[in-house]
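Archive transcription. Copying these from loose printouts into the bound notebook so they stop getting lost. Printout 1 of 2:
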Amino acid sequence: MTQVRRWPKIEAPAFQAGFKWESYPYVAPMNKFWHLWAKALGEKAGNSDGEADRIAMIRTAIVMVYVITNIVIIAGVVRHWND
């Protein structure tokens, strides 16, 4: 049986005990924005915060596809308005 190679686990400062977002003034607003955006996408899904963040990223990608599709449709309508 082949052994599965895994990426090494690297702990970022945000996941270490005692980390304070307030010490990074430019990161804290983005963290607050992400929290609000994830809530706006719908009910929290997942068993952990990391899993919930990944699900929120997938939902964000879906919303972006919808927005881009609508922009292309509107651009096509405007382009052929008087044809």
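Printout 2 of 2:
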Amino acid sequence: MNQKLIEIVGKELKLIRTDKDLSLEEASNLITIKQQTLSQYENAKTNMSLDKLDEILTSYKVNKFLFFKKICERYSRKKEV
């Protein structure tokens, strides 16, 4: 996956988590992954599978269509800059 896209996805996941007032610990327990792994996803330090992204979005109760729409919009803007 393109590094810019990975960064955008990570930032959006962190924004969703913080908007839900979840700490890294609380979110990682909800998703059943290590806290360090979630942090690496949010900070674009490691790639995640689409299955893992789906699991995270489902745990956060996020509309996947709206999530990907927002990601595409942000990615398009970054490419124009």
